[in-house]
Amino acid sequence: MPSLPFFQVDAFAAKAFEGNQACVMVLDAFLPDETLLAIAAENNVAETAYIVAAGEGVWKLRWFTPAVEVPLCGHATLASAHVLFSQLGFTGETIAFDTVKSGRLHVKRLADGRLEMDFPSAPIRPVPVTDEIAAALGARPLEAWCGMFYAARFGTPEDVRALKPDQRALKSLGAEGDGWDRGNFGCFALGGDGADATSRFFAPGSGIDEDPATGSWHTMLSRILGQNFAMPAARCYQAYPGRGAWVGVSLEGDRCKLTGNAVTVIEGRFTL
To answer: Within this chain, do residues 155 and 81 fall inside the same structural domain, yes or no?
Structure first.
């Protein structure tokens, strides 16, 4: 029976049991979409990343949750670069990933061992907080924005940590946008223990009730912090209960730099 290389990585983590889990699978060519989705469902972590070599220092990259293929995923990109640098012996300084909907992404290995990702950061616009959204979140935000997702600001980090949203209700809600808004909510507050901003990310619209560490969300959070709170660079904490993740963000025009660590926790073969 055929088998594929398999790595499970904790991304945006300095040690095991932190950050967000991603599976990384290195392929000679992409398998049929239904097979890629079935493997991701079997892996049953937030994202499975599939990479295919496409030239010197370049790989094609796709991301799947257990339910859907997504246009951008930060933590699984970080995990993919970590596998190439740490497990598969890539010795260059920068890896290029060609993606279907987010263009070319670059990941650079910094001198201190962290990885720095160069991602697009989409425009945002303020939107009203409706009674329906406030009820689904279980608390009323102070203000909100629409971009890649729906972003809601609360008064304190404790307010964010205390959220217990109605996931079924959230799944169909959002602001009008490009399709990713529905059922995907970033909730944040300024400050926190050693953080410039503390957040959580609820994504029932993508098949995940709550995501432990979300790079794509931080590209939006970076723009909110830079444009509205004079923080073009920030140290952010994603407060998923029981794990937690640190993400460095830096807004540079229409791009965002995300920095973090990753560790491999499982290495093996996936048998089809």
So the answer is: no
Instruction: Tell me which amino acid residue 261 is.
Output: N
Q: pTM surpassing 0.85?
A: yes
Asked if residue 59 belongs to a domain, the reply is: yes
Question: What percent of the chain is predicted at pLDDT more than 70?
Answer: 97
Q: What are the CA-CA distances from residue 76 to residues 1, 21, 210 (Å)?
A: 27, 8, 16
Q: Tell which residue, 165, 187, 183, 164, has the closest CA to residue 175.
A: 183
Could you tell me the residue range of the domain that residue 66 belongs to?
Answer: 3-121+259-271
Specify whether the CB–CB gap between 202 and 209 falls below 8 A: yes
How many angstroms separate the Cα of 79 from the Cα of each of 12, 47, 152, 265?
9, 10, 27, 11
Structure-block tokens of residue 175:
């602001």
The single residue of 18, 34, 42, 47 carrying the catalytic annotation is 47
Distance CA 42, CA 34 (A): 12
Q: What is the pLDDT of residues 132-166, one digit of tens each?
A: 999 999 999 999 999 989 999 999 999 999 999 99
Active site annotation includes 56: no
CA 164 – CA 217 distance, rounded (Å): 19
Looking at the predicted structure, is the pLDDT value of residue 1 above 90? no
